[in-house]
């Protein structure tokens, strides 16, 4: 019973760390990266649709992304969604067949803003991991009458180690992203 709870907790914490890494990838660095556009939702015939489902994304140059829609009627909606995306600073141009997005050069001030943004996102993900720990601890406490106290103490130590390892993984990803952002 305890092993199942801890296995489920490990899986949930792993997903939280992956979500943190994906979230960090959406913050732009000096280079254009198609992952920046992963979380952009386009209003496609009244329903929010991820950009990756509506178009192919290519990176022909260091600061340029070319968005080629599968349906030409969605060009205006794609262009508007990219323009409205906060923290991107992109100015898309539409030539009737595709959308060309040129990302401006990052200033040192803007890089520092992005570092603050990434740190905020990292803290949100750490809080999420600690929330998973708290819920698991509550689940373990409900087993108090069914299992021995030694098993419970051992499980809590293992839970603390899991939490520490996953928070450290988020911190490591944060360090890499900060270095990437501050690299000129």
Name its key features:
184 residues; alpha+beta; two-stranded antiparallel ribbon; 58% helix
What does it look like?
The structure is a single chain. This protein has 184 residues and is α+β, with helices and mostly antiparallel strands. The protein contains 5 helices and 6 strands; from the N terminus they run H-E-E-H-E-E-H-E-E-H-H. Helix 1 runs antiparallel to helix 4 (108-142), helix 1 runs parallel beside helix 5 (149-182) and helix 4 (108-142) runs antiparallel to helix 5. The longest helix is centred in the last third of the chain and has 35 residues, at 108-142.
Distance between the termini: 51 Å
Give the strand content. Answer: 15-25%
Instruction: Report strand order across the widest sheet.
Output: 3-4-6-5
Shape field? elongated
Structural class: alpha+beta
Secondary-structure element string: HEEHEEHEEHH
| Helix percentage range | 55-70%
Task: Give the low-confidence spans.
Answer: none
Find the count of extended strands (DSSP E, 2+ residues): 6
Main beta sheet: 4 strands, antiparallel
Number of helices: 5
Q: pLDDT average, as an integer?
A: 89
As a whole number of angstroms, the C-alpha radius of gyration is 21 Å
Topology:
Blueprint: H1 2-25, E1 41-44, E2 47-50, H2 51-54, E3 55-61, E4 64-69, H3 75-84, E5 91-94, E6 99-102, H4 108-142, H5 149-182
Antiparallel strand pairs: 1-2, 3-4, 4-6, 5-6
Helix pairs in contact: 1-4, 1-5, 4-5
């Amino acid at each position: 019973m305890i092993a199942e709870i801890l296995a489920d907790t490990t899986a949930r914490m792993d997903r939280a760390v992956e979500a943190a890494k994906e979230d960090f990838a959406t913050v732009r660095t000096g280079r254009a990266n198609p992952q920046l556009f992963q979380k952009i939702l386009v209003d496609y015939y009244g329903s929010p649709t991820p950009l990756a489902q509506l178009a192919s994304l290519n990176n022909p140059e260091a600061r340029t992304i070319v968005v080629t829609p599968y349906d030409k009627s969605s060009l205006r909606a794609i262009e508007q969604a990219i323009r409205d995306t906060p923290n991107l600073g992109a100015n898309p141009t539409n030539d009737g067949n595709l959308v060309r997005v040129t990302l401006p050069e990052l200033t040192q001030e803007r890089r520092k803003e992005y570092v603050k943004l990434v740190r905020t996102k990292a803290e949100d993900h750490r809080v999420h991991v600690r929330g998973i720990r708290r819920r698991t601890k509550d689940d373990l406490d409900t087993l108090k009458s069914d299992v021995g106290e030694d098993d419970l103490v051992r499980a809590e130590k293992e839970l603390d180690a899991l939490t520490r390892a996953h928070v450290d993984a988020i911190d490591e990803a944060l360090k890499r992203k900060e270095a990437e952002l501050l690299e000129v």
